[in-house]
């Protein structure tokens, strides 16, 4: 699953990943991005489906952990004050 998000400064990010979460600011055409600006992180035991939204001044990232057929499957989330940076997994 790949999605796009828009941060408060108007930057559009493309989000994707499987085993590692990736993000990259989209170009003006909203169809491509500069690979040199892509960054990644591994939140918890990230599997796939990274999603980020902003609420009350905090950015929340949520994702799937483990395979959906695994008894240990779950959805986790983390919060941070900026679109990029350290976050606290919950």
UniProtKB/TrEMBL annotation:
Query: Do you know which InterPro entries this protein is assigned to?
Result: Glyco_hydro_43, Glyco_hydro_beta-prop_sf
Which terms does the record give in the GO molecular function aspect?
A: hydrolase activity, hydrolyzing O-glycosyl compounds
Please name one Pfam family that this protein belongs to: Glyco_hydro_43
Which keywords label this protein?
Answer: Glycosidase, Hydrolase
Listed GO biological process terms: carbohydrate metabolic process
Look up the domain of life of the source: Bacteria
Which family does this protein fall into?
Belongs to the glycosyl hydrolase 43 family.
Protein name as annotated? Uncharacterized protein
Q: Can you name the source organism? A: Bifidobacterium callitrichos
């Amino acid at each position: 699953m790949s999605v796009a998000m828009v941060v408060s400064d108007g930057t559009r990010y493309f989000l994707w990943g499987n085993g590692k979460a990736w993000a990259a600011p989209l170009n003006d055409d909203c169809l491509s991005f500069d690979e040199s600006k892509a960054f990644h992180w591994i939140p918890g035991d990230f599997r796939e489906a990274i999603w980020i939204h902003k609420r009350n001044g905090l950015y929340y990232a949520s994702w799937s952990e483990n395979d959906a057929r695994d008894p240990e499957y779950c959805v986790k989330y983390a919060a941070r004050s900026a679109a990029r940076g350290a976050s606290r997994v919950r």
